[in-house]
Design goal:
The protein has 186 residues and is mainly α. The chain has helices spanning 7-29, 35-65, 77-107, 135-173, 178-181, and strands at 116-118, 122-124. It has a single domain, classed as Up-down Bundle (Fumarate Reductase Cytochrome B subunit). Helix 1 (7-29) runs antiparallel to helix 2 (35-65). Bound molecules: protoporphyrin IX containing FE (HEM) (2 copies). Residues 19-20, 23-24, 27-28, 45-46, 49-50, 52, 97-98, 101-102, 104-105, 146, 149-150, 153 line the site of one protoporphyrin IX containing FE.
């Protein structure tokens, strides 16, 4: 039985983690930015977020064909269940957050006029289905989806405290080789 995640799973885990951290930081900082910097910061937020969505889809597909290593042998049954539950929650939120963000941006009444251009290079489409709606309906959808996006972002922050806390506890207090499982090497 292998004891660590495959190389691709490791690369994807850390790319996605960096993307999510960058976007949590930029998302929570929008309100403090002067207007002339806000548009660029927002375009970067969209670019990173759509990339995260693509990487998560890839990761889930890869995982379906490549099962993860067995859990560390000395985890207590409760620890096993909690860590598995948090992993599932993290997968779910890693899809829901960028998807709800994309829907929020696409529902905006001005979204039709300016499609997204990821990293100032790659044109990207709005999520279909909002074009036929009137302005009030689009406004309502934008507000609702924005609230879902924001709520999911807060839930992932709480889940990450447990996820990172658990990983560090096993690594440094229980002195198990937990982080090595999610890194490269023999
Ligand atoms: C946004 C950030 C992150 C997300 C979404 C995330 C998500 C996940 C998921 C879904 C798994 C389970 C993989 C699977 O079984 O397929 C996992 C495993 C793991 N993550 Fe993260 N993670 C994040 C950040 C971090 C950070 C900052 C650390 C470092 C402290 C970390 C350390 C680990 C470790 C060590 C494992 C392997 C756990 C095990 O072997 O049971 N993760 N992560
Ligand atoms: C890695 C994925 C993402 C994360 C972690 C993330 C995180 C956040 C956070 C924390 C906020 C601030 C919420 C608040 O003020 O309460 C935010 C706002 C926003 N994000 Fe994202 N985001 C992601 C992806 C995306 C994507 C892909 C898009 C669009 C293509 C997007 C569009 C937006 C919009 C439109 C807002 C403002 C929502 C509002 O009306 O309050 N996000 N995001």
């Amino acid at each position: 039985m292998t004891e660590r995640y495959s190389k691709l799973a490791v690369v994807l885990h850390w790319l996605i983690a960096i993307g999510i951290f960058l976007n949590l930081k930029s998302g929570l900082g929008f309100d403090d930015l002067p207007k002339d910097q806000a548009a660029a910061a927002f375009a970067f937020h969209e670019s990173i977020g759509i990339s995260v969505l693509g990487l998560v889809v890839l990761r889930v597909l890869w995982r379906m064909g490549n099962p993860p290593p067995a859990p560390l042998a000395n985890l207590k049954p409760l620890e096993r269940r909690v860590s598995l539950g948090i992993h599932h929650l993290l997968y779910l939120l890693s899809v829901l957050i960028p998807l709800s963000g994309w829907l929020t941006a696409s529902a905006h009444k001005d979204a039709g006029g300016h499609g997204m251009v990821l990293f100032n290079k790659v044109p990207w489409f709005n999520f279909p289905g909002f074009g036929g709606l009137g302005d009030p309906a689009r406004h309502q959808a934008h507000e609702l989806l924005g609230a879902v996006h924001s709520a999911c972002a807060w839930v992932i922050m709480a889940a990450l405290v447990l996820h990172v806390g658990g990983a560090l506890k096993h690594q440094f207090i229980d002195r198990e080789k937990m982080l090595q499982r999610m890194w490269f090497g023999r």
